[in-house]
Amino acid sequence: MSTKVNPDLQRERDKCTFNVTELINLIDGGEDKTAERKSREEMVLKEGLHIDDVPNEYLSHKEKYERAIKKSCGLFKLIRRLQEEDSAGMENYMAVLGGTLGSAILQDGSPLTLHYVMFIPTLMGQATVEQQAYWIGRAFNLDIIGTYAQTELGHGTFIRGLETTATYDPSTKEFVLHSPTLTSYKWWPGGLAHTANYCIVMAQLYSRGKCHGIHAFIVQLRDEETHMPLPGIKVGEIGAKLGMNGTNNGFLGFEKVRIPREHMLMKNSKILEDGTYQNAPSSKLTYGTMMFVRVVIVNDMCNYMAKAVTVATRYSAVRRQSQPKPNEPEPQILDYVTQQHKLLIGIASVHAFRLSADWIWTMYNNVTAELETGDMERLPELHALSCCLKAVTTADAADCVERCRLACGGHGYMQSSNLPIMYGLVTAACTYEGENTVLLLQTARYLVKAWQQAVGGNALTPTVAYIGRLSTGRRSPPWENTIEGIIHGFQRVAAGKIGLCVANIEKRQAAGMQYEDAWNMTSVQLASASESHCRAMVLSCYYEENEKLMKNVSPALRTVLLQLVDLYVVYWALQRVGDLLRFTSISERDIEQLQNWYEDLLTKLRPNAVGLVDAFDIRDEILHSTLGAWDGRVYERLMEEALKSPLNAQPVNDSFRKYLKPFMQGKL
């Protein structure tokens, strides 16, 4: 970090009312965890893998991939060294690969990410003990590189509609994989195009003339020595995208490719040598990998949002603009309440989603442990929650990054701010691992069943227990303008929407409409009900989990953390005031009080804005932004970065003599 800090930014740090280091330790999970993270960052960054002579944005598409491969190999070489030095280093090197540290090196995505995030977890979740013994060791050592191919050109979130076939041939004890149509080609898997030599392929299993649905198969794509595609494998890259252009997303088609019977992952379902199919105890057991990735995505969104608000908040402390009062200096744009409104909710959202991510991660581990014993009772609840939480956090992260970009004015449009690149990364998450609207409708199916169970007098799982209390149709109690009152109000909104959806579906059925058509006609309301359910869950989780943290923090930090909770809850009350008016007894006077409460919170949090983003403790090398560096030297860094443009390498571009001068002289 530079020793010379912009004086405006330094003054912000001087007036912070809490100990920033205390909050850093709290976010990390303890002083020892902070020390461990900092040591890891220092060790990785001193390798210099994040340093580029030419910024990524000036490279061609092909060059971006080649740089991503070079950097990925350097990173994984470092990870392998970590493994050798620390036998218990799994968590350590996964932390190097993921989160903010990996993005410092691989700014536009890595072609090896799916190897660790999808390929290995699927092997761990769906392979037999014997299959794991053979494959996982090779995968961890990077003797092979894998990816995960599920989405096709014609089908994505609707998994049952996938067209790729795997037909068992008992005479040779092999599966024959085939892509019968263009739309059956696999499309999107990261690393598939030119990087992976193995792939887990999701395909329709056929045996003895019968289709048994989607199953997972390990398929070798390329020769392990030459890397040439094997016979019958049609593989390539899908082209440039809004973001993640280092990810090497690919397409994959099969022309009657044969693989051994043992290459079907058979932990749950099995094909015997004679072609007999043995079903899994539950088809839901295959959801494990997708739920794992959705939980990981929630954490990723926290990291991107933390980076975005750090950039925009520090810039807002340095940037001065306009002159509201004559003969007075231009104020910092952070002094404008509209700017505080844009940024402080982003800071609060990071804390809300971080605690929600920790909570659902604990739930995921508990449910996974229960699955190992054959207990699948809470699996539907986890599936419903992971669906809506992924949808809401990715949508909110995209809104947050874009809001931060706009908060930085024209400079936020510069790629050197890193905000456009972040936006490309977070918006991608709105569609991968389940398109958000479809995921909300997945959650809605669970909520409709929960409502019907509650009406029938049955007990409900913890995350939907409020539906049981509110499904009786009793009149709304008096509104309470408190945090608990707002959370109860959001639960009443969610329950009210779910109840209306059920009533509308039943009404349409009674009029002669089939259930599926009635569901489709009600789907806009169903998606809205799921979003409201998730909002209620996040508000409740943030409030309750934050209360648990309060026992071990200083009074100064406690005050600020409680203000952030209040800000987050009141913000969403104002954002959803129409729903509250419809389903609760909130009054116009209550809304006025909420608005005043919200503006008062902005004023109280304003002096701590920079301290709060400093507490995310994101190094400049990771932040990778001209606008958000620790020292606040915004204008110097913008100029330094501008001079790196290849167009500045010569004072007169060749196009002047070739095109511009002849045109200006009328000789073109």
Task: Give short descriptive properties of this protein.
six-stranded mixed sheet; alpha+beta; 668 residues; Butyryl-CoA Dehydrogenase, subunit A, domain 3; 55% helix; Butyryl-CoA Dehydrogenase, subunit A, domain 2; 11 strands
Give a written overview of the molecule.
- By secondary structure, this protein is α+β, with helices and mostly antiparallel strands.
- It has 3 domains: 1-16 and 288-632, Up-down Bundle (Butyryl-CoA Dehydrogenase, subunit A, domain 3); 143-280, Butyryl-CoA Dehydrogenase, subunit A, domain 2; 635-668, no CATH class.
- 55% of the residues lie in helices and 8% in strands.
- The protein contains 24 helices and 11 strands.
- The strands form 3 sheets. Strands 1, 2, 3, 5, 6 and 9 form a 6-stranded mixed beta sheet that branches. Strands 4-8-7 form a 3-stranded antiparallel beta sheet, with no helix packed on it.
- Strand 2 (165-169) and strand 3 (174-178) form a beta hairpin.
- Helix 15 (483-510) packs across helix 16 (515-521).
- The longest helix is centred in the middle third of the chain and has 36 residues, at 337-372.
- The radius of gyration is 27 Å and the shape is globular.
